[in-house]
Amino acid sequence: MMNRRREIFARRLDLAHGRVDMSHGGGGRAMAQLIEDLFLAAFDNDWLRAQDDCAQFAVPAGRLVIATDSHVVSPLFFPGGDIGCLSVHGTINDVAMAGARPLYLASSFILEEGFPLANLTRIVESMAHAARRAGVPIITGDTKVVERGKGDGVFITTTGVGAVPAGVTISASRATPGDAVLLSGSLGEHGMAVMAQRENLSFDAPIESDTTALHELVAAMVAAVPDIHCLRDPTRGGLASALNEIARQAGVGMRLREAAIPVREPVRALCELLGLDPLYVANEGKLIAICPADAADHLLAAMRDHPLGREAALIGEVVADDHGFVEMETVFGGRRLVDWLSGEQLPRIC
Questions:
Q1: First to last CA, the chain
Q2: Dihedral (CA of 286, 288, 291, 297) sign
Q3: What is the 3-state secondary structure of the chain?
Q4: What angle do CA 312, 261, 314 make, to 5 degrees?
Q5: What integer pLDDT is reported at residue 1 of this predicted model?
């Protein structure tokens, strides 16, 4: 009997051909094997090797920041990324938008019975690569399995912890009339990459997701201009919704210049084909920065010096407006209201 038990534990998961089954979430041997053969192997670090139900870590000086984000993107794999790297980048960016240095990540998986282990391996390895490249380890997590038909392959929730250095206070509430509004690069690439994959659309110039971790760009920006008032990554709802959120929080208005907002031609063309507005399309590798007007040129130069900010542009300014309206000066010389996103323009996009 003892030899039989050793033989069972010595078996490896068939990561190439196997599938998730209910026992992988049951708390027993199969779950332990999934964790050891896949998650521990991919995310390997000292915190995970302890195999406790939590992670203990040193806390640096400064204010702590915590953010959590759930990822339900469909399809799971798309040009330029997948749900794995997206789950790492998305949470790192949420932490970074406070001006924080991301320190650690936790991850939680909801797996559907029957999901191919080969796909799960690909996702987990993508997460591991993204976390290592960003220098932000995944130090704890959880896995659950739901019955076939009660999930959609895999859902991933990640939580990030970071530290804000002394003297940095970045919040939407600090946006002030007269401030400059900057954008780190072109809009709509993530949302249109997912949509093109979903609809089996192909183009001479393929559209790839811009998903990436922005914390190093943010660090360079904060070093150049410590008095940045607000940072925000325009994910679901795009630039338009993000600016409306900031305007509401700060009790101000925004005035944008359409000609200054960068949108690459393949994205613009696909948006026109589908009847979408790039201002409302999700991004996963861009940020909005709001700073005092007299610091805008210096901040813009710092952004353009970084590989992730080479297309950065000054796109507008904050104005006094009790109604909190976001307005656009169009290329034709008129003005139009840039309202909140109504409904769900592109579901399951992140």
A1: 48
A2: positive
A3: CHHHHHHHHHCCCCCCCCECCHHHHCCCHHHHHHHHHHHHHHHCCHHHHCCCCCCCCCCCCCEEEEEEEEECCCCCEECCEEHHHHHHHHHHHHHHCCCCEEEEEEEEEEEECCCEHHHHHHHHHHHHHHHHHHCCCEEEEEEEEECCCCCCCEEEEEEEEEEECCCCCCCHHHCCCCCEEEECCCCCHHHHHHHHHHCCCCCCCCCCCCCCCCHHHHHHHHHHCCCCCEEECCCCCHHHHHHHHHHHHHCCEEEEEHHHCCCCHHHHHHHHHHCCCHHHCCCCCCCEEEECHHHHHHHHHHHHCCHHHCCCEEEEEEECCCCCCEEEECCCCCEEECCCCCCCCCCCCC
A4: 50
A5: 39
Q: Kindly compute the dihedral angle of the four CA atoms of residues 212, 199, 70, 48, in this order, to the nearest 10 degrees.
A: -60
CB atoms within 10 A of CB 169: 15
Contact 199, 207 (CB under 8 A): no
Q: What pTM did the predictor assign?
A: 0.94
User: Residue 292 half-sphere exposure, CB side, CA atoms within 13 Å?
Assistant: 6
Q: Which residues are registered as beta bridge partners of 143?
A: 109
Rounded distance between C-alpha atoms, residue 349 and residue 72, angstroms: 7
**Residue 19 vs residues 69, 108, 111, 291, 319: alpha-carbon distances, Å:** 26, 19, 10, 50, 55
Summarised one tens digit per residue, pLDDT across range 69-102 is 999 999 999 999 999 999 999 999 999 999 999 9
Residues 254 and 172: their CA atoms lie apart, in Å, by: 13
| pLDDT tens, position by position, 269-312 | 999 988 999 999 999 999 999 999 999 999 999 999 999 999 99
